[in-house]
Amino acid sequence: MTTAHPVSPPASKMPPGVLALAVGAFAIGVTEFIVVGILPTIAKDLHISIESAGSLVSLYALALAIGTPLLVLLMSRLPRKAALLGLMSVFLAGNLLAAFSHTFELLLVGRVITAVAHGTFFAIGATVAASLVSKAQAGRAISVMFAGLTLAMVIGVPFGSFLGNLMGWRLPFFAVVVLAAVGLGAMARWLPAGLQQGKGGKAMTQLAALGSGPILTMMAVTTFGFGSSFAAFTFITPILTDVTGFSATMASALLIVFGIATFAGNLAGGYLTSHLGWQKALRSMLLLLAVTQVGVALAITSQWLMTVMLFVWGVFAFGLSPALQAGMLATAERYTPQAVDFASGLNISAFNLGISFGSMLGALMVSRQLMASSPWAGVAAALLALLPLAWLARKNLAAHVAGAAVH
Predict the structure, then answer these.
(1) What pTM was computed for the model?
(2) For the residues 319-330, what does the mean pLDDT come to?
(3) Residue 5: band (very low, low, confident or very high) from pLDDT cuts 50, 70, 90
(4) How many angstroms separate the Cα of 83 from the Cα of each of 53, 58, 88, 195?
(5) Domain segments of the chain: what residues?
């Protein structure tokens, strides 16, 4: 359906508004993934089990998945800039609450607040990023925004984990508060004042997206495709230490390798999405992600092979993001044009349903002493994502042919 586009300008040529969104995305990325690196420290300080501390990850994703489409719906008629500034302010407040919390329950409340703001920020932000450039550059603009998220994995999460484990788990949350303030200032300064309101029809019109087969199918692609990596990635630190045999310090350093790969993969995914179209880009990357996770499973006991495979895995795991979001925007514009923001919110939910799905799948395998085999679950999920993608491609082709016949 989508043909290759002309060569995109480099990310440095992107409008400053897109870069401002990337700054906000960086702060959010640190918050989302920092907990994985400091779970044992939180559990020890708050006198809870590691399993209970793990719910800070799964419940965050669940709150994000449920809350995002509802909040997008409520904010659908607000001016885009005001909505994004408001969401970043709520995100800042949630992290401040988490930083000052002295009980697990209060920390969880802070996480839930930030989760809902997080998802809605990306749902609305992705449509804004795409609107600031030409249609041919939409995939690249979204990837630049999401690059803030992946850059957080390269710099923010490893550094924050190191400081959190050394000086107390609250320190990374205070750092995120500062980052959120910087993001707030960048968006206030650089986002155009004249951004239109969201493409929000009446509530029932928006909710109709929930009954759209193509929208639900695209959500399935996102859930299984993006979620496939989290069966193993959720437990990547114990895998690297207990299975591969790295020291805890080396395992932390290898998270930087994975983070660099996610950053490179995100930009590569944006390039492929803009040049091949989101459907071809997704099909190629899902196949490569499945093959890569086979490689991870086979290399899991070899330190040098695992180091290489971590990088390759990171490239394809997060290279999916721009194509998945561009695919949902294109699908919504075709099938539910009055609910584009809401559909974008549903896809953010699907990303996090994928994280929950993958994490639970991995936890099930860990509980059965199958941690070393968890990458195989990811292989199956990545291949499963190809089925709804194929259905959607056929439907889009049929609609394209029908439209051409009419004209």
Answers:
(1) 0.75
(2) 89
(3) very low
(4) 32, 26, 9, 11
(5) 14-406
